[in-house]
Amino acid sequence: MQREIYDEDHDDFRGAVKEFCKRFATNDKREGWDANGEIDRATMLAAGEFGLLGLTVPEEFGGAGMLQDYRFRAVVYEEVIRAGAGSLAGALAIHDDLAVPYLVHMGTRAQKERWLPGMATGEILGALAMTEPGAGSDLRSIRTTAKKVDGGYLVNGAKTFISSGTTADVIVTFVKTGDGTRPDAFSLVLIEKGASGFAEGKKLKKMGFHGHDTAELSFTDVFVPDDHLLGGEEGKGFVQLMMNLPLERLSIGVAAAATSQAALEWTLEYTTSREAFGKPVIDFQNSRFQIADIATTVDVLWTYIDRAMSLYQNRELSPAEAAKVKFWSTEREWEILDACVQLFGGYGYVTEYPITRAFLDARVHRIYGGANEIMREIVAREVTGRK
Questions:
Q1: Model's pTM, two decimal places?
Q2: Residues of the chain with pLDDT > 90: what percent?
Q3: Which of 6, 81, 178, 381 could make an S-S bridge to 10, C-beta 3.0–4.6 Å?
C-alpha cells in the first residue's frame, strides 16, 4: 500500500540516510559494535555530520530545527533498521527521542546553549535514567534522592537498564526532591559524565541490541549545581516525563513498524532464493499465505503509525493514544518476526542473519518505554473511565 505521509523533502533526506548507512552501517561496523558492546563515537559523529542527529534542535543551537516534524526521524529509523543496524537505531533513538527533547522543550536558555550544539553534532551524547533496581514502570517508587544544599543538590541512589549509560556525556536523571509520591516530589537533573561520585557499573549482557550499551549507574553524593536542574524548577520532573512519554512510545512504534517492514523484505528475498524439494520456498502455499498475512499486517501497521505521526505533529497525540501505538505495534512486530524466523528455517536461528538479530532485539520493545501490560492499563482507564 502506498504511503502518503512523506513529501519531496523527506525523500531527499532519505537519500542522505541511505548514503550514511552505506558507509557507516556495514556488517564490519556492526560486528565491532557487538564485540565492544557499544556504538563507537566516530559513527555518532558521522551521524551528526550527515544531519541525522539533533533534528529537533533549533537552528540557533546548531540543529536542523524540525521541531514537530517527526517524519524525518521515522526516515532515519526505516533506513538504519533496513540496513540491519538495530543497535545503531537504538542509540540514535535514545539520544534524539529520549534525551534531546527534554532540553529542546524544557531546558533553560543557558542549558540549551551549554548542551544542544554538541548534541546536534554527536560531540555530546545524551541518555535518560529513570529505571531503578526496585522501580520499573512504577516511577513513583524510585529511591534516588537529590537533597538541597548550598548551590545545588547532592544525588544519591542507583539506576539500572540505562541505555547508552556508558557512552552518554549528559544524563537526564529522574530523582526525588521531596517527600511522598505526589507528582511535585520529583525532579529531573542533568548529570555529566565524570562528576565526582558518579560511577558507571558494568555493561549488562542482554538478549538483543548487543551493540548498544546498557548499564547500571550509581550516585554517591554527586553534586549537581542549581543550573543543572532541568528547566530551573524543582518538583516538575514527573510532569516533564509525562510530557515526553508520547514521543518515546511513538518512537518505539515507528521502530516496530520499520523492523516489521525490513523483516518482510528480508524474508521475501530469502524465500525467493532458497530452494527446498526442487523449488523456491516462496512457491509453497504455506509460505505464500504467511507472506500474504505479513504484508497485510505491515500495511495496516504503517497506516496506524502514519496517523499517529500526524497526530503528534499537530500536538494531538494523547498519552492513551501513544500507549495504544506502543503496545499494539510491538505485539504485531513480535508476531511478524516469529513468522519470518520460521520461514528462514535453520538460518533463522543464526545471528549472522539480520532477521535473527531483529528477533532478539525486538523482544525488549514490549518491555521498555512502559511494559505493554501497563500500556493496556492506561488505555483501559481512558476507555472505561475507571481507575
A1: 0.95
A2: 93
A3: 6
